[in-house]
Design a protein that fits this description.
By secondary structure, this protein is of the alpha/beta class. Helix content is 28%, strand content 23%. The termini are far apart. The relative contact order is 0.13.
């Protein structure tokens, strides 16, 4: 395990969104001295950086060209430490036993006002739960829901396979601001949502019983861990989330990861991630949704989806109006750096899953 530490001085402030501040900082030591890098700070963790501040950076992923956004990360402002937070309830520790572990009040915590609601909770009462591999699917799924059920309350349950801070996601910030999401709920080691929970199971229950969601969307945060191997990818947890939705009496809906533009064969058509997570990990029956779009590519996607449906339910929905729905998104649609024009199928299939969830509300 290695961390590339660098000291730097903040030169200017870039973009900001709830919970995040982008800075441009000049490295002051080591072989990179004099180089300006883009770095991200989460003020709730490290304080608010200002021009002239000395900052301690972790540049490991940046140096390898990894990670969503291409950021170094601000670890501390040594000369301008934030004040101690006010004393209050909550003892759930997230990012546990790392230097930046943080303590939060979980809705399932004994000190929470919602503990009595969740203590024996065990039933989602048929709530549609749409589960995706990639974070980039979330806005498209919500667009699909809103195409047919514009007033439905949609909550996002963020798992810890990608980014841990919810504040890292510009998409969540934009969807919350636009009223497209009623709540973001961070589970496991992820933190910073409107509600915090210990597990995916209590995250789903909190979405329904505390946030009052009609539809729940589950996906990891931004950034996806993959190794090019059958089992070595963070999206395998999508299968477990489908199982959790079924165990709790929800209606599991699989939003398949699909691409018509990815250069890697394993991700063309239905990605091997979905073939594994949905086809092998998800043991409880789920609805596997595809649009009825014409063309050889979509014919192939439908054939792959049918191959997953020994125990799952194959669902084909109309694609009419979904492109228009995607165009209304208040946040930029992008997956692996590709927008709708470059990889329409990726977003169309996610929107189809959202449309099916909306249909389930009428049954």
């Amino acid at each position: 395990m290695t961390i590339r530490w660098r000291a730097a001085t903040v030169r200017r402030i870039g973009a900001t969104w709830p919970g995040s501040v982008e800075v441009f900082a000049e490295i002051t030591d080591g072989p990179d001295a004099g180089v300006e890098v883009k770095a991200l700070a989460h003020p709730d963790l490290v304080g608010t950086p200002r021009p002239g501040n000395r900052v301690l950076l972790n540049t490991s992923a940046l140096a390898r060209g990894l990670g969503t956004g291409g950021y170094a990360l601000v670890v501390a402002l040594p000369d301008d430490l934030p004040a101690d937070p006010p004393a209050g309830p909550g003892h759930l520790v997230k990012a546990r036993y790392t230097p930046l572990q943080t303590m939060v009040l979980g809705v399932d915590d004994q000190e929470s006002a919602h503990h009595a609601t969740l203590a024996e909770a065990d039933d989602l009462e048929g709530t549609p739960v749409v589960v995706a591999d990639l974070h980039s699917a979330v806005p498209a799924i919500v667009a699909g829901v809103r195409a047919d059920a514009p007033h439905a309350r949609v909550a996002y349950v963020m798992t810890d396979g990608g980014a841990l801070p919810a504040a890292f996601s510009r998409a969540v910030a934009g969807l919350r601001e636009a009223g497209w999401l009623s709540a973001c709920i961070t589970t496991g080691q992820a933190f910073g949502g409107d509600l915090e929970t210990a597990t995916v199971h209590t995250g789903l229950l909190a979405a329904r019983l505390v946030a009052g969601a009609d539809v729940v969307v589950v996906a990891q945060g931004p950034g996806n861990l993959g190794t090019g191997s059958r089992w070595g990818f963070s999206g395998v947890a999508a299968g477990e989330a489908l199982n959790a939705a079924a165990v709790l009496g929800g209606r599991p809906v699989a939003a398949l990861r699909v691409s018509e533009a990815d250069a890697r064969d394993r991700h063309r058509g239905v990605s091997h991630h979905s073939l594994t997570a949905v086809g092998r990990v998800a043991l409880a029956p789920a609805d596997v949704v595809v649009p009825d779009s014409p063309g050889a590519f979509h014919d192939g996607v439908r054939d792959q989806a049918r191959s997953l449906c020994g125990r799952h339910r194959y669902v084909e929905v109309s694609a009419d109006g979904l492109d228009d729905a995607l165009a209304t998104s208040p946040v930029r649609l992008s997956t692996m750096g590709r927008g709708v024009d470059a990889d329409r199928a990726s977003f169309l299939v996610a929107a189809a899953a959202g449309r099916h969830a909306a249909a389930l509300l009428r049954r």
